[in-house]
């Protein structure tokens, strides 16, 4: 009997310690806290915006500043120089359907510089091509089997799957992520694709000694200031600078550039679209917390969790909202509203609960009144569509079956929507 109570006691203690050490994340809709969705149309003075002119003149920039100061961080000043060089070109790529260009972009400031390579595929028989622009996670050489893709020599994330253990890219990982990049479909649809390995802009680790941030430091500075940019803003900045290149390339239509991104790189495409109004459209694929999903729902990944796991992604000021989402002066539907009136596609995956599909959907719904000011159609109802039943208006949304990923299904929808709203 004594032994039994001792055993029970131990069992109880183990359970208690487990519960304390493993923070629980909410996946139960009935436990989503009640919260106030900040009204995108309500100004700081308490006026309601009723026209697109007033939105642009009286509301947009104040809202943008709130995101800059509290979430993604400000870019600390201008760069000194931006240079481009076409370092490789091929006339017969992607089963003979595309031309390939590899362009080295160099950003300089304070006598320091970083370079990144933009890999571009364009349909052969077309001029002035609309184009999707996106970062990739593991190096340009992983997006397609094309042996001519220049392999990065930057730091890459270790990956058991790809056998990367020393943060060095591997020849054997060529094409390893091709399933996420429906390049032939994109080319057949009349679009181009441009992609950059994000680690060449800023390696994805909590270390601010390298990458784009380091060019901007004053003497002795080692980290961005609390209101200054984290990695997401730096990756977004590189997308903007790539748009500068497109303006110089006669084969590309710089007025039809769609920023695309998956997951953390979807957070990046959204911030790029909000920051640079030259982007003609934006796609957020499974971007989740700090992307399309509403923070105040605290469903799946939370602000505290993302700031703990990835302290370098946002500005330091964002930490003030850890376990304190109620006091955030903004929520992510207002980030989406900053993209208005330009076409915006938010996509979720059914098994990607961590990214809060419902929070991503509602965000698009709550951004819709701003699109309506411009006479554009968004998400008409707060009832989520069935899986694999896209809503395609200027603001589009789908939730597909499957996991956190980019699939051919996703690309099929993006191309169809882009043909209607961007091309
Ligand atoms: C996860 C992170 C998400 C998402 C994802 C990704 O670990 O919690 O916010 O960004 O990484 O980028 O793959």
State the gist of this model.
Helices cover 29% and strands 19% of the residues. The N and C termini lie far apart (77 Å).
Describe the fold and architecture.
By secondary structure, the protein is α/β, with parallel strands linked by helices. It has one domain: Rossmann fold (3-Layer(aba) Sandwich), CATH 3.40.50.1820. It has 10 helices and 10 strands. It has a 10-stranded mixed β-sheet, sandwiched between helices. Strand 1 and strand 2 form a beta hairpin. The longest helix is centred in the N-terminal third of the chain and has 21 residues. The radius of gyration is 22 Å and the shape is globular.
Layout: helices, strands, pairs:
Blueprint: H1 2-21, H2 52-72, E1 81-93, E2 98-109, E3 112-123, E4 129-136, H3 183-188, E5 192-197, H4 211-215, H5 231-246, E6 252-262, H6 264-275, E7 281-285, H7 303-309, H8 332-337, E8 344-349, H9 357-373, E9 391-392, E10 395-400, H10 408-421
Parallel strand pairs: 4-5, 4-6, 6-7, 7-8, 8-10
Antiparallel strand pairs: 1-2, 2-3, 3-5, 9-10
Helix pairs in contact: 5-6
The structure holds beta-D-galactopyranuronic acid.
Labels describing this entry:
Rossmann fold; binds beta-D-galactopyranuronic acid; 423 residues; 10-stranded mixed sheet; 29% helix; alpha/beta
């Amino acid at each position: 009997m004594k032994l039994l109570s001792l055993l029970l006691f131990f069992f109880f203690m183990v359970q208690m310690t487990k519960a304390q050490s493993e923070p629980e994340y909410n996946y139960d809709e009935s436990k989503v806290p009640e919260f106030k969705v900040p009204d995108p149309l309500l100004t700081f003075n308490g006026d309601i915006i009723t026209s697109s002119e007033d939105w642009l003149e009286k509301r947009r920039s104040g809202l943008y500043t709130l995101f800059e100061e509290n979430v993604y961080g400000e870019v600390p000043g201008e760069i000194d120089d931006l240079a481009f060089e076409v370092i490789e070109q091929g006339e017969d790529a992607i089963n003979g359907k595309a031309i390939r260009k590899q362009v080295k972009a160099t950003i300089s400031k304070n006598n320091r510089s970083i370079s990144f390579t933009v890999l571009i595929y364009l349909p052969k028989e077309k001029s002035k091509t609309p184009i999707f622009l996106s970062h990739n996670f593991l190096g340009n050489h992983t997006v397609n089997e094309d042996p001519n893709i220049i392999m990065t020599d930057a730091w890459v994330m270790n990956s058991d799957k790809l056998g990367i253990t020393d943060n060095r890219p591997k020849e054997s990982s060529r094409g390893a992520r091709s399933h996420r990049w429906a390049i032939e479909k994109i080319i057949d649809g009349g679009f181009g694709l441009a992609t950059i390995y994000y680690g060449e802009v800023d390696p994805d680790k909590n270390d601010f000694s390298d990458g784009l941030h380091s060019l901007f430091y004053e003497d002795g500075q080692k980290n961005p200031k609390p209101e200054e940019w984290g990695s997401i803003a730096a990756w977004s900045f590189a997308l903007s600078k790539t748009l500068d290149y497109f303006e110089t390339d006669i084969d590309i239509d710089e007025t039809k550039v769609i920023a695309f991104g998956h997951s953390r790189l979807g957070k990046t495409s959204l911030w790029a679209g909000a920051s640079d109004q030259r982007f003609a459209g934006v796609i957020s694929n499974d971007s989740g917390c700090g992307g399309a999903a509403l923070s105040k729902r605290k469903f799946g990944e939370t602000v505290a969790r993302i700031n703990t796991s990835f302290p370098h992604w946002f500005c330091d000021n964002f930490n003030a909202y850890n376990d304190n989402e109620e006091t955030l002066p903004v929520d992510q539907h207002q980030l989406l509203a900053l993209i208005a009136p330009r076409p915006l596609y938010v996509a979720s995956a059914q098994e990607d609960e961590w990214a809060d599909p419902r929070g991503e959907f509602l965000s698009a719904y709550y951004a819709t009144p701003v699109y309506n000011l411009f006479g554009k159609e968004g998400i008409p109802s707060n009832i989520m569509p069935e899986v694999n039943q896209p809503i395609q208006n200027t603001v589009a949304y789908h939730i597909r079956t499957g996991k956190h990923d980019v699939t051919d299904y996703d690309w099929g929808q993006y191309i169809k929507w882009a043909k209607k709203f961007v091309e």
